[in-house]
Amino acid sequence: MDIHALQQIVHKTRDARRKQTIPKFSPADRDQLIHKYHPDYRASAYRPIRFGPNIDEKTVVELATLLEGDSLIQDDADLTPDYTTDVLVIGGGGAGCAAALHAHGAGAKVMLATKLRLGDSNSVMAQGGMQISVAPEDSPVTHFLDTLKGGHMHNDHDLLKTMVDDGPAIAKWLIELGVLFDRQADGNLHVKKGGGSSKPRLLTCSDYTGLEIMRVLKDEVLNQKIQLLEFCAAVELLSDENGQCSGAIFKDLDNHRYVVVAAKSVILATGGIGRLHIQGFPTSNHYGATGDGLCLSYRMGAKLAHIDTFQYHPSGAVFPEQLVGQLVTEGIRSEGGHLVNAKGERFVNELDTRDVVSSSIIRECEEGRGIRTMSGRVGVWLDTPLLDVEHGPGTVEKHFPAMLMQFDRFGIDISKDPVLIYPTLHYQNGGVKIDTNSETNVKNLFVAGEASGGLHGRNRLMGNSLLDLMVFGKRSGLTAAGRAGSMKQGKLTVKHLQRFRADAKKHGNLSNVISPMVLPAYTRKES
Amino acid sequence: MSAQRGVRNERFSLTLPLTLHPLTGLRNMAQEDTNVIDQPEVMKPRMVSIEISGKKYDVPEGITVIKALWYTGQEVVRGAGCLGGFCGACATYYRIKDDPKVRTCLACQMAVQDGMSFTIMPPFPARKATYDIQTLNDPKQDLFNLYPEAPLCRNCNACTEACPQKIDVREGVWKAVFGDFKSVSEMFMDCVMCGMCTPVCIADIAPNLVALYVSRAQGAHFTEKPLGLDVRIKEIQDGRFNDEWKKVLAMNEKDLAAHCATLK
After folding, report:
1. Chain A interface mutation, best of B43, B86, B106, B136, highest count of A Cβ atoms under 10 Å
2. Residues 6+ apart with CB under 8 A from A11
């Protein structure tokens, strides 16, 4: 059936739905729903990791295979350094830029390497906003509790307290750099309510929050003349004789040469894993989100946390086909957008946490109340025109210009017609285990941002990622820079690789792949 | 450009069948279900002829320009970024059948159509001024030192026509020169820094870089300081929340969960 014909039920039922209130699930019902429908509980998608720091712990097959993967670098590789620096930042997104700027500001010699361009990241796409407790009726403690509740109480308390306490100072730093957050009439920061939060706490730059922050941070990295190594993918870390991190080896993607960088500390800010398409899900992630930092750290002996849990953002586009997997911002639901099934019914409190909302959408579709597109995908409606009905004409255009333009390119006006959505692979809840200075159990190896784990528990709350990036980017940068003056550059070896390979051999070398993946294999091999 | 945007979505409804995802080779396992309410036929894609950097290929109609590159067997390193229309890495020139007009798009946000011809824009060596945003003396005057070419705009409007984000770039450059930084910062909130406004400028202005400077100056120098934020920072420094923290952090798991449950 034509998509316009299918949409009619949303228009027809709108007035009736506006009078409804949908209660949130009780904790018991919530757990039951998640266990039955959330992809994290699909046992067949998981297997234990066969060796290494997280031996016998389960993760998704796609990630386990890469973690057990072999390195491109041979034991006898030439490790003569091409560059020497105090702090080597790997990754050019939000965490990487924040780390580089703070380390540079603290007087260290900094190099920032990234496999794509500076700024190419998930950070640039963040639309929903950044959670910081700036409102008078809010507090860091409430922010802590909301996040804990959203993470199903599995969050690392120390990391979480650090993040919420550091938040307001981060906002100030960004404003001083020229980031244009939305304001109230009195000049104070405007705050919006996000899913799973008890108080309005989201700082926004319309629906371009990540883009605005990244434009400014990228510009600042260039203004500070921080040394860049673009289109260079990290393929191995270096360790000294004590197993401490001492640099990294890159592959220059332009000329395919290896580049060796000696560094007193390494900060991995390599982001998430969406492009592994775990369980076959489409993803909202950027081209380079292939979990490189996890593989690199794991081989060095760094322990991972919560790597069995991923976030499937409730609203990934299902139609048109060109936008499949891309996000329809949660902001639409924050402002009252309804989720509607094929019968024209609401089926979940739209502001419940992401895992609950995603599970309920999957439930609707699996029980036959989804809407199928011509290309065979299935989803439920997000009633976007409702926003103009509730808050006045022009609301969608004013509050969601990015979203409006994205669909307009394909002839769809989201202020007039609802959009079809289905959960999309969005975020890696876990990652490399870090302490409050963002350091791993491998000395001088720091991990910041999505690649790190523990802070978000088993489900990240909307708007906490942008803050995570800035807080732990800053802490890693400052700690690494603070250490640089009083330490010597460690030797450059790949002894950790010999250990890793011996371990792999003992367990049968089963993976048979080279990791990190660097870029997804989208290029079609034959016609 | 705007005439191009009115394309009806029906054109693109014939797309890739579920079982043959040519780009990831993945089945969409998450969506294998039986839907009783509506089961339209899953249709096979129609193939269309396109030109990539002057070479002819047949690709399924309606896939994005970036996916057409992958479909035709090309490795993409430069020219792909967020794949969501936000990063500007995939700035592309294209032309549609029998139309002499060369247009611009983001390759991840544009569907191919029969007779289309395109090329990804190579990195362009635009000059970016460097500055310390916090110590500028007179940001509106400093603009002319940092970007002396900015006032030389000859009003040709090519930048506006080249913008895939539909920003009125030319107007923005003039507003910047006349010191209306606030308007510029609002107009350029959509800017993905793809840089397609730059190669077309006959006055060698890089409008996106000018606008970025102006927006940052607007934020750092001409926007009211949020007083509530300073109050909160001081409260945290002064330990205003210490008692509450102590109470919360001393709770056992069960009490903490019960406490969290009281939040609405």
Report:
1. B86
2. A385
C-alpha A432/C-alpha A243 separation (Å) is 17
Q: Where exactly are the structural domains of chain B?
A: 2-120, 133-221, 227-261
- State the sign of the Cα–Cα–Cα–Cα dihedral A306, A309, A314, A315: positive
What is the DSSP code string of B43-61?
PPPPEEEEEETTEEEEEET
Contact (CB, 8 A) for A306 and A156: no
What tens digit of pLDDT does each residue of A276-327 get?
A: 999 999 999 999 999 999 999 999 999 999 999 999 999 999 998 888 999 8
Residues 6+ apart with CB under 8 A from A484: A86, A87, A108, A109, A264, A265
What's the alpha-carbon Rg for chain B, to the nearest Å? 25
Distances (CA, A) of A160 to A164, A166, A432, B17, B251: 6, 10, 15, 44, 16
pTM for the model stands at 0.92
Q: Is A14 a catalytic residue?
A: no
B89/A117 Cβ within 8 A: yes
Residue A288: domain span: 84-309+429-495
More confident residue, B8 or A389: A389
Nearest residue on chain A to B22, judged by CA atoms? Answer: A524
SS3 assignment, position B120: strand
DSSP conformation class of A189: B
Spatial neighbors of A248 by CB under 8 A, at least 6 apart, are A88, A90, A113, A234, A236, A237, A238, A260, A261, A263, A266, A296
Task: Read off the pLDDT of residues A469-504 as tens digits, 9 standing for 90 and up.
Answer: 999 999 999 999 999 999 999 999 999 999 999 999
Confirm if A287 and A111 have CB atoms less than 8 A apart.
no
Whether A344 and A392 share a structural domain: yes
Question: What sign does the CA torsion over B178, B180, B186, B191 have?
Answer: positive
Of A142, A218, A369, which has the smallest distance from its Cβ to B37's Cβ?
Answer: A369
Contact criterion met (CB below 8 Å) for A210 and B192: no
Active site includes A35?
no
User: Is the distance from CB of A263 to CB of A87 less than 8 angstroms?
Assistant: yes
Which CATH code fits B2-120? 3.10.20.30
Distance set, CA B10 to CA A140, A403, B63, B221 (Å): 49, 20, 14, 48
The residue assigned the tokens 């403690």 is A141
ipTM of the complex: 0.93
Length of chain B: 264
Same-domain check for residues A374 and A449: no
**Domain at B133-221, CATH from 3.90.180.10, 3.20.20.30, 1.10.150.170, 1.10.1060.10:** 1.10.1060.10
